[in-house]
Amino acid sequence: MNTNMKENLKNTGPSFAVFFLFATFFFGFSSCSNDKVANDSEEGVAANQILSEKGSALASWEEAPRTRIMDWVSAVTKEGSTDFIPEADRIAVFDNDGTLWSEQPIYFQVQFAIDEIKRMAPEHPEWKTKAPFKFLLEGDIAGFLASGDKALPSLLAMTHSGMTTDEFDQHVRNWIQTATHPKTGKHYNEMIFQPMLELLDYLRENGFKTFIVSGGGVDFMRVWAEEAYGIPPYQVVGSTGGLSYEMEGDIPVLKKLPELFFNDDKAGKPVGIHRSIGKRPVFAGGNSDGDYEMLQYTMTGEGARFGLYVHHTDSVREVAYDRDSHIGQLNKGLDDAAKYKWMIVDMAKDWKVIYPFELGNE
User: In the chain, what are the domains?
Assistant: First the structure.
């Protein structure tokens, strides 16, 4: 990739730039021997073993991490405990990509943008010969990335702006209902993590308010987050683009603009938390160094705190990656886990199942 292209991606903002810097891994994913996807039959065996426990808290978690979480929640919710946290202060925040659902081989919002270009292509026959879109239509992501400084802004402008917020919501809704992952064949909202769903439910049952705090686009996530996680749109914090208030006839609308207004990633996450939530969390979950500052901010507050990192160690049921990954890289989080007393969740060892689809129907 040429220097100008790298600089342009940098200036666009990490949460969007990282999407496309590593999009080439989409096409090499099938050849990665260590990145095997979930085996439905193997998962089914584990799922059958816990079906009888589905009504109990954290049924998909192994005993050690389950006990650690439940002991902490018990301590902070018990009246008279030295660790007691008033219900109004029970704020729990979670990253989305790689923490609540999968993120390999490319961030799912990237795939949405690519699929949107393909959907819109019949209305733009000029794209067949016009860079940068012709590269996407030909499946040449490397060519797209190398096609010039305006490639990324053009893609974002075409798929994430120039329409009303209602129109964008509908595009996302249609995609989440129909698109499937290239390797698992699952709908993307089926690739959410069953243990994390249980954790969200358990925290809410104990008086916690659960928020998403993600580098992904807030408008993208708000469409489906409540159905997937039980987290309403007003409890989703994410990267935001520009908006304008306009009149279409007698109807007021919000139009999406081709600009990055706020990047909710890395050091931006505590800023986003303060702006949107107004309280320092007492519980935080992430999976990469993009979540480091959020977990650090959470754990250094007064009183009892809990931080966890989802460590992608399962090459059979999901994908194994950490320090050397080009998506969801986890270095500082592993190095400083003991310092901040973060719990490292080993997906291969600590989770009985990965996806809720494997739990089947009783």
Answer: 3-359 (3.40.50.1000)
